Amino acid sequence: MSTAALSFGSAARLYDSIRPTYPVRAVTWAIGAEPVRVLDLGAGTGLLAGALRAVGHAVIAVEPDEQMRAVAAERHPGTRVLAGSAEDIPLPDESVDAVVVGQAYHWFTPQDALPQIHRVLRKNGVFAAMWNIRDDRTPWVAALSGIVGNEGYGLESAWQYGPVTPWFTEPERSSIEHTVTVPTDRLVDLVRSRSSYLTADAAEQARLDREIGELAATDPALAGRDSVEMPYRTCVYRMRRV
C-alpha cells in the first residue's frame, strides 16, 4: 500500500469533520434497502459505515490505519472495527452479504483485493465501490478544482481500475447528485484532508492555503457567506459475486 494511501491518519479527525457522507439513495442503489451484513472495506473514520447503519445494515469495518480506526470506533460504538486491508481481509469465507468501499478502491491492488472480496462474500453477494466527486459544473467548484485538481475517479468510464472477472459480474454504474453544507472558511480544511495536500511539501501546502483563501474571499458565490452548498455526484459501481 502506498505512502499516500496511509497519509490520512495524521489528519483523521479533520478528515472526519469535513469530508461528506454518502446519500441514502447511493447506499440503497448499491446494496438494496433490506438490512444485510455489510463489510465496509477501507472504512476510514466510518463515514460510509454511518450511512449504512442509518438505513439498518449490520456493519463490520476494516481499515489499515490505526488513527482512522480509532475515530471510526469512537463514532460507531458497538460496530466491529478491525485492523486489516483489502488485500488481507480478517474475516472468514462467505461471511458477509455485501462489501462496500467508499472513497478507497483506487488505493487497492485489484489483483490481490478482488479475490479477497470474493472470498468473504456469500453466494450472489454484492460488491460496490463509490466515490463522492465534487460537481465541477458549478463555476466556483470548477475554480476550486482548478486550484487543487479534480476528483474524477472514473466518471468517464464504466470501470477504469482493471477487469473484475472472473470474480464478479461486469459493473453497473449510477451517479447520484446531492449537496453538502460546508462553512466557507473551512473549504481549506476540505483540501487539507486530501492525500495530495498531506503528502505535499510546505511550499505547495502554503500555495494551496493561499489560493483557496483568495477564492473564498473574492468569488461572488463565496465572498461574505458563512456557508455554501457543495454539489457532489456520488458515483457508484455495483457488481455481483460469481
Describe the structure.
The longest helix is centred in the last third of the chain and has 17 residues, at 202-218. This protein has 242 residues and is an alpha/beta fold. The model is unreliable at 154-158 (pLDDT under 50). It has 9 helices and 7 strands; from the N terminus they run H-H-E-H-E-H-E-E-H-E-H-E-H-H-H-E. The protein has helices at 12-18, 24-31, 47-54, 66-75, 110-120, 139-148, 187-192, 195-198, 202-218; strands at 37-41, 58-63, 80-83, 96-102, 121-134, 172-183, 227-240. The chain has a domain at 8-134 and 151-179 and 232-240: Rossmann fold.
Shape: globular
Write down how many β-strands occur, each being a DSSP E stretch of 2 or more residues.
7
Biggest beta sheet summary: 7 strands, mixed
Secondary-structure content class: alpha/beta
Count of runs of 4 or more consecutive helical residues: 9
CATH architecture of the domain at 8-134 and 151-179 and 232-240: 3-Layer(aba) Sandwich
Report the CATH superfamily of the domain at 8-134 and 151-179 and 232-240: Vaccinia Virus protein VP39
Instruction: Walk across the major sheet and give the strand order.
Output: 3-2-1-4-5-7-6
Helical fraction equals 25-40%
InterPro entries: Diverse_substrate_MTase, Methyltransf_11, SAM-dependent_MTases_sf
GO molecular function, one term: methyltransferase activity
Organism: Kitasatospora cinereorecta
Pfam families: Methyltransf_11
